[in-house]
Amino acid sequence: MSKTSSLLSSLLFASVDACVLGLLRSLQLSPRVFSNFPSPPLAALWTGELIRALILTLLLPFLTSGPCWVPNSELFQTILVLTLHLPVYLTVVRVLGGAVDEEMWAWHSWERMFQGYLVTLVSWIYWSQYVQPVLLSLFRSVSSIWGWKRRPREESKKPTISSLRRLMGFMRPHSGRFAVILLLVVLSSFCEMAVPKYTGHVTDWLQNQGSPDAFTEAITVIAIMTVAGAILEFIADLMYNITMSHLHIAVQADVFQAVLNQEIAFFDSTPAGELVSRITTDTNTMSEALSEKLNLLMWYTGRVVFLFVFMLMQSLKMSLLTLMGLPIIWFVPKFTAQFYQEISVKVQDSLAKANQVASETFSCIKTVKSFANEDGETERYRRCVEDTYTLNKQEALAYAGSTSANSMTTLAMKVFILYYGGVLVTHGMISSGELVSFVLYELQFALVVDALMHYYPMVKKAVGGSGKIFEYLDRKPQIPPDGTLAPENLEGHVEFKNVTFAYSNGNGDVLKNVSLEMKPGKVTALVGLNRSGKSSCVKLLERFYQPQDGVILLDGQPINCYQDAYLRQKISVVSQDVALFARSVRENIKYGCEEASDEDMYEAARMASVHKDITKMSKGYDTDAGEKGGQISGGQKQRIAIARALIRRPTILVLDNATSDLDSRNEYQVKYFLDLTVDGYSKFGFRRFTRAS
């Protein structure tokens, strides 16, 4: 219903406008009116257009809506543009000394009416899509500088920072380099303008049979400017790519650190494969697009500006005709870029799922093979890849459609330019050389605009794909702020007081109103059935999670009051599911404690009853443990993990069923050394949590 009403209003508006123009044309051409009210053509033009504007304005209350392309709030501005653009243009041309008498007498023709609506449509596109957003952005910037208050409605909305602005934030430390690069782009683009300019001079020389010196001078200038432009472009490309490589490393490092700082619950709910995909694949895709595509986009933007300036110098009218065709050409890439941005997010999500399947399969390859489920995992991965393929087909369809539309619009613009240029040459308004120069500029202009339309969606795609990266960068860890306590001496008195805790998976309380006490210098055993909350107590003690109720005290102070790094130093945990890194045994034992000496490492290994086993390995302590410790036995992994905990000389040692994979002999030796350490070194208090099967 609204579309029908808008269409009827548009027809009514155009019909009334046509009637007004017909009436004004009859009055102007009437000999009686002309003899009674003689007036200069420019004054008659202004008078007629003002009358036209007044009548169309009086028509507004009778319209349910304006022309179909214009919002109701902008109808009056649209009428002003429709009726006054020609008087303003001809007045400016007249002031500049141009001949406008012929055009002023034909202002009320049907051709001018159609041209007026076309100019109004183009003007509205320019205003709504480009000028108005820039003005609003400038107004916000000035408002923030001068401290102007926004409306209450605007204050309630949290400002969202676009991904592109965030990317520019990473470039800000290198603003000096980018200023030099921009200068080189300007100089190089200016040098490239010499070829069409002097080609036009050569054309005039051939037509008029000028002096040979003019021809030689033109060829020399073309050669010098071409070489200079190539050298400047090489330097700018080199500086830009080096700078963007540095930015890629910085972004990837920041994303990795931001993810690493998240709480444990975040890793519980987010698959590891997806995290790896975001840190590597997404950042690589974004950096490659910005390194190559944004570079080209910057070059072509510089060229298109210079090309249009030189086109204005050759012919104002042909330049305005070209300018009128730009919004139609620009609308196509803007629409496809938005589609690209939406598709890119879906593609990257699909790739992340596929990476998760592959990562999970390879990390559990022994389980996969033991159950002979290679075909099942292959089918899972194939389904994920097929989803990605479906999205890629949609992306390819959008690319093919935009390319065809771009080619058709640029070709149409070339045809109009050639036709109109021939008319101007016929009327003697420009020379043949100027037409040749303009056509060469316009051909480059069309190629540059086509390149901008090609690379702009790619940059938009990279920006859209970076959204998830900035989500990780902006995400605040859901943990309490770090405490301030870091006493030199910690006794290790732990108390749980009425602690209630539940995981975020909604499976109910794991701990409910639990109270217990672990005294310093004592070995405390927490025994219970599976899923009774023993490991949850360990995770709460490590501050991996926060209890919903109750408090955990350490030496009489809430555990949240201590510095997080201090707690990690004073509390060491060895769990049943030992995690070793794909590094040497030496690096695994000294993990997080690289300043420890080799003697400290040997002592910790002896206490964990693993020193002899390590020395019998092929490379001793330099032996590679393999992925997740897969190159060594389960018992050796547990003892290496115990040595890794002991080398830190913790005040509180937590063993969460840490000897489950040891035989009775090695388990006895580990317990013997631990008990000996507790008794022999009173300054070190140990707490050991063990679980019963």
Describe the structure.
The protein has 693 residues and is mainly alpha-helical. The chain has three domains: 2-132, no CATH class; 170-474, ABC transporter type 1, transmembrane domain (ABC transporter transmembrane region fold, Up-down Bundle); 494-680, Rossmann fold (3-Layer(aba) Sandwich), CATH 3.40.50. It is 68% helix and 5% strand. It is built from 25 helices and six strands. It has helices at 2-29, 31-36, 41-59, 75-95, 101-105, 110-146, 152-155, 163-171, 175-192, 194-208, 212-260, 264-269, 272-314, 316-363, 365-370, 374-426, 432-465, 467-474, 534-541, 564-570, 585-589, 598-607, 611-615, 634-646, 664-680; strands at residues 494-502, 509-518, 549-554, 557-558, 571-575, 652-656. A hairpin with a 6-residue loop joins β1 (494-502) and β2. α16 (374-426) runs antiparallel to α17 (432-465). The chain is elongated, with a radius of gyration of 38 Å. The two termini are 72 Å apart.
Q: In percent, how helical is the residue content?
A: 55-70%
CATH architecture of the largest domain: Up-down Bundle
What's the main sheet like?
A: 4 strands, antiparallel
Distance between the termini: 72 Å
Strand order of the largest sheet: 2-1-3-4
The CATH topology assignment of the largest domain is: ABC transporter transmembrane region fold
Number of helices in the DSSP assignment: 25
Q: What is the radius of gyration? A: 38 Å
Provide the number of structural domains. 3
DSSP strand count: 6
User: Beta fraction of the residues?
Assistant: 5-15%
Morphology: elongated
The residue ranges in which pLDDT falls below 50 over 5 or more consecutive positions are 147-161, 679-693
